Amino acid sequence: MKRTPEDVMKSIMRVVEYTICAIILAGIITGLWDLIKYVKEFALNPSSKESYDIFSNFLKHALMLVVGIELIYMIISHKNETILTLVLFVIARKMLVYAEGMTDILIGTISIVLVFITMKFILIKESSVKKADGTFSAGISLTDLNKLYKINIEAKEHTLGGLIVRIAAESNVPLFEGGVYSYGPYTLKVIKMADGVIEKVAIEEIDG
Fold first, then answer.
1. Cα distance between residue 22 and residue 45, in whole Å
2. DSSP of 20-87, one letter per residue?
3. Is the pLDDT of residue 101 over 70?
4. Could you tell me the pTM of the whole model?
5. Of 37-41, 64-68, 116-120, 142-146, which gets the smallest average pLDDT?
6. Cα–Cα distance for residue pair 165/174, rounded to 1 Å
7. What phi, psi does 141 have (nearest 5°)?
């Protein structure tokens, strides 16, 4: 199948993203040595004042590495949840590094609470919602699928996509867009894939 300019651009952008992630990961791995040095300094300085300063610097550095890890995950996954998690760690580190009084701490605390409210009450899990075109995210859990949409699919896999991968492997049928796989009284059709990963699936019940 001939690739469109949009497909080519997406592939190029994906390569750039992975390259950036690799560079960030290299920086994180290098930064782990500094954490070890902080631990050594902490052990060699029994003074409470010096220990406090060293431990404070240790936490600042550790949180920066965590922010880097979350940034990599956000770039790779492209999920809203990862963006909010990254924001939480950024706020936490900013409070630790730059907070100078109760006002700064109060603002940081309010910001964290707002992020949690967004995650719990406003952000709808995409993987649990049936799309307008009748398809499901491959990441939907089989538990949610059965409970929310009255579908009865029992399997050891946690997600719909994982089930299709196993069915394809057992039946020696390669995964591809448009592929149809049978499981019990249902046919599972792969509607969309990206970089070899199933994204959207349609489910139809086989008439008895």
1. 36
2. HHHHHHHHHHHHHHHHHHHHHHHHH---HHHHHHHHHHHHHHHHHHHHHHHHHHHHHH--HHHHHHHH
3. yes
4. 0.56
5. 116-120
6. 9
7. -75, 145
- The C-alpha atoms of residue 69 and residue 25 are separated, in whole angstroms, by 7
Query: ∠ CA 85-87-92 to the nearest 5 degrees?
Result: 100
CA distance 124 to 140: 13
8 Å CB contact between 200 and 191? yes
CB 190 within 8 Å of CB 167: no
Closest CA to 66 of 107, 116, 32: 32
User: What is the rounded distance in angstroms from the CA atom of residue 194 to the CA atom of residue 52?
Assistant: 49
pLDDT of residue 43: 77
pLDDT at 74: 84
User: Among residues of the chain, what percentage have pLDDT more than 70?
Assistant: 87
The pair of structure tokens assigned to 199 is 């994204």
CB 202, CB 189: distance < 8 Å: yes
